Fold TIGR00269 family protein.
Amino acid sequence: MECNRCDGDAIMHAAYSGAHLCESHFLESVEKRVRRRVRRDDLVSRAATPEEPLTWVIGLSGGKDSVVLTKILHDTFAEDPRIELVGLTIHEGIEGYRDESVDACVELAADLEIRHELVSYEEEFGIRMDDVVEDDPENMAACAYCGVFRRDLLERHADELEADLLLTGHNLDDEAQTALMNFLEGDVAQVAKHFDASLGPLSERSEQESFVPRAKPLRDVPEKEVALYAHLEDLPAHITECPHASEAYRGEIQQLLYRLEENHPGTRHSILSGYEELAGIAADRYGGDGEDSTDLRECAECGSTTTREVCRKCSLLESLA
Ligand code: SF4
Ligand SMILES: [Zn+2]
Ligand SMILES: [Zn+2]
């Protein structure tokens, strides 16, 4: 099969768009989608200047998604003095898994000559995920602990690095899954939060002064295409799955979406675009100064922003102590 844009041989076919693309046109199409998302989400604020550049902290896990995001942002902004990239890697303390992906992060940051910071649960909280899974005082899935700790470290360190933006490598499959899960759980306040936290264009989100804004510029690219991009560009991505991966519900939704996508190509795109529009409407009502907005306060233990007396991270650490 021939590439739709040149005489080269197509190496991929996207059923949702009908496109057949050769290697170079495929790589270009992924890069274009990321750049278009950066523009549409207004990520480069007009106030940015070479004298006062923006600091963009990328949550760099060493998996294919964050590695591809870092590479494309680097290629896009390497010559642009208004943007400084920093890779931030979190070591959860998972034997034989995270060590290798940290190596991938170090290698990538060195190749691209970007600043790289590494922080660990062990140094910050005195815990390792391998031990948390053993203890399991709350009788929960590993990811339920891990997600809370990771979010805390990403936010806190992004703040310390004076980040203007915290970027993560969520792809189209990840975001369509989250959208569907939020729908099925019927939690409209959560949908509104999602918009203000990471989905809406920066200029349309309600102010959340205590958080570094987040962005997910890879969310128009399906997971398979991210993997193909990493492979073709020979990026140092780590592919093994975490041994504690346990989000059973997300796994069910993922299988459901695979089936739907196969029978109805384009389903992920339409779920996400409809969800984003609805999330914007929900955010008007629930977000920041909306009529049903939630009250935020400081955690009595660590001072981070929370809706409760003591934040979730501090109460989990307490039960693990
Ligand atoms: S899969 Fe779960 S336990 Fe493993 S690193 Fe990710 S969030 Fe943590
Ligand atoms: Zn081509
Ligand atoms: Zn706290």
Observations:
- The beta strands are 12-14, 19-21, 54-59, 83-91, 115-120, 165-167, 214-215, 297-298, 305-306.
- The mean pLDDT is 92.
- DSSP finds twelve helices and nine strands in the chain.
